[in-house]
């Protein structure tokens, strides 16, 4: 699970600052840098370019009191930008209920709210008015919730944080593979079904309003209710229920926290990432699942205490294995790994098993070295730790020399040689991870300071304008 910090030149934060931390000087510009181009679904479900969004970390709240429903307002554009700096967007989708419950509630609400007007003495006029008002109320009760759901979904997708936009896109595509349901098409069809119900209701309301007799007004009302219910079940119900299943999957997606340092373990499949998370974590790691993954991801924590006496639980997680291939061919799990590095404030621990015994045909020594080179070139400013896992199984000298050529002699001196089985290097790795997490914390502090400064300037400008 990734719980922390799109051209996929994603400008997280452009901070050209150096901060002094324990152990020396660090560069804090990795957070707002131009990340190399990616090919992960450059368009979201509604054609929104993922590359056009700022990934600047912000508060992890829903922020529902916003002007996002006014499509022409400047405030709406500002609010959408603000939401894209927040997470929790996958829980901002409008609440949806099963279609039979929506229909039942609509019919009951009409009988509760619409009463016969006793002040009208003429029986025909009284029946006309009652029937037309009931038909109008029933039509609104059926159609308004569907209208709000369609608009709400499209608005939320446009306002998602870049990482959550990738998660949502992958979830939608996983559902499409499962049963062929395309979200954009489903929403359009749902809206068309709503329009059919709306037109039908308007037609019946007009007809009942002009009924020649009270008896016909009453009979037409019964007929109209039955026809409305049938049309709703056929045109709206299946789309609502299909969307409901997708919503459940989206809402179950682990939430992302942007203001807590995190470290993600990256590497080919079966190189020991999960075991490493368990070995360096304080407490028992959790297992979290994304709807489109075939296995859970291990999330652990490391307690950090800073010079000011404050402490926090930082996050350490494994990630789905990467294969040596182009981005266009990456599966959903690989895209999640890339998205975490592209959009979240994480340090990277790159794990390699160069023993030749990784146990996966796609995890050969040659492929692992290529993957390491590929990922590092893409994310050159990320705080980074190289780990040789399962070191007790041995590494051929020529393989080690090839690694040194790829990463450079200086970096090669800092590679952690690790064996969880033999308990080699675990303490060294934990210490290095604590160091890079402190680097991430420093960057997050700089980001927060910049945000506070911007808020102060905006408030001063607002006071000056008033």
UniProtKB/TrEMBL annotation:
Keywords: GTP-binding, Nucleotide-binding. Residues 92-256 form the NOG1 N-terminal helical domain. Residues 49-71 have a biased composition (Polar residues). GO terms for molecular function: GTP binding. Residues 37-71 are annotated as: Disordered. Residues 332-392 form the Nucleolar GTP-binding protein 1 Rossman-fold domain. InterPro entries: GTP-bd (IPR006073), NOG1_N (IPR041623), NOG1_Rossman_fold_dom (IPR010674), P-loop_NTPase (IPR027417). Transmembrane segments: none annotated. It comes from the Eukaryota. Gene3D superfamilies: 1.20.120.1190, P-loop containing nucleotide triphosphate hydrolases (3.40.50.300). This is Uncharacterized protein. The lineage of its organism: Eukaryota, Sar, Stramenopiles, Ochrophyta, Bolidophyceae.
């Amino acid at each position: 699970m990734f719980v922390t910090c799109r051209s996929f030149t994603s400008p997280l934060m452009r901070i050209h600052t150096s901060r002094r931390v324990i152990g020396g000087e660090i560069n804090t510009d990795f957070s707002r840098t131009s990340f190399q181009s990616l090919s992960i679904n450059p368009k979201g479900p509604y054609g929104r370019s993922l590359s056009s969004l700022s990934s600047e970390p912000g508060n992890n709240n829903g922020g529902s009191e916003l002007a996002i429903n006014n499509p022409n307002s400047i405030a709406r554009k500002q609010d959408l930008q603000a939401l894209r700096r927040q997470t929790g967007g996958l829980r901002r989708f409008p609440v949806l209920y099963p279609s039979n419950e929506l229909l039942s509630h609509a019919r009951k609400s009409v009988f509760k709210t619409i009463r016969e007007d006793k002040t009208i003495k003429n029986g025909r006029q009284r029946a006309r008015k009652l029937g037309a008002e009931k038909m109008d109320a029933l039509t609104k009760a059926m159609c308004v919730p569907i209208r709000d759901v369609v608009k709400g979904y499209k608005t939320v997708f446009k306002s998602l944080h870049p990482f959550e936009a990738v998660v949502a896109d992958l979830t939608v595509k996983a559902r499409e593979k499962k049963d062929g349901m395309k979200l954009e098409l489903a929403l359009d069809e749902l809206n068309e079904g709503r329009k059919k119900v709306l037109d039908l209701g308007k037609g019946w309301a007009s007809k009942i309003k002009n009924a020649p007799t009270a008896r016909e007004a009453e009979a037409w009302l019964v007929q109209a209710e039955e026809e409305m219910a049938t049309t709703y079940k056929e045109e709206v119900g299946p789309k609502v229920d299909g969307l409901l299943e997708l919503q459940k999957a989206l809402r179950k997606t682990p939430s992302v926290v942007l203001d807590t340092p995190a470290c993600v373990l990256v590497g080919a499949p079966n190189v020991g990432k999960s075991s490493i998370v368990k070995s360096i974590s304080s407490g028992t790691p959790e297992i979290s699942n994304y709807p489109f993954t075939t296995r859970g991801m291990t999330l652990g924590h490391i307690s950090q205490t800073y010079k000011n006496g404050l402490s926090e639980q930082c996050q350490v997680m494994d990630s789905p294995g990467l294969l040596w291939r182009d981005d266009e061919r990456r599966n959903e799990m690989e895209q999640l790994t890339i998205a975490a590095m592209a959009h979240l404030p994480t340090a990277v621990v790159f794990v390699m098993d160069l023993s030749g015994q990784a146990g996966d045909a796609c995890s050969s020594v040659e492929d692992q070295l290529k993957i390491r080179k590929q990922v590092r070139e893409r994310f050159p400013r990320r705080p980074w730790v190289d780990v040789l896992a399962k070191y007790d199984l041995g590494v051929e000298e020529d393989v080690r020399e090839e690694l040194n050529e790829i990463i450079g002699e200086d970096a090669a001196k800092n590679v952690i040689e690790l064996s969880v089985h033999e308990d080699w290097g675990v303490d060294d790795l934990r210490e290095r991870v604590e160091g890079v997490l402190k680097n991430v914390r420093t960057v997050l502090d700089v980001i927060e300071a910049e945000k506070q400064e911007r808020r102060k300037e905006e408030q001063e400008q607002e006071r000056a304008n008033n």
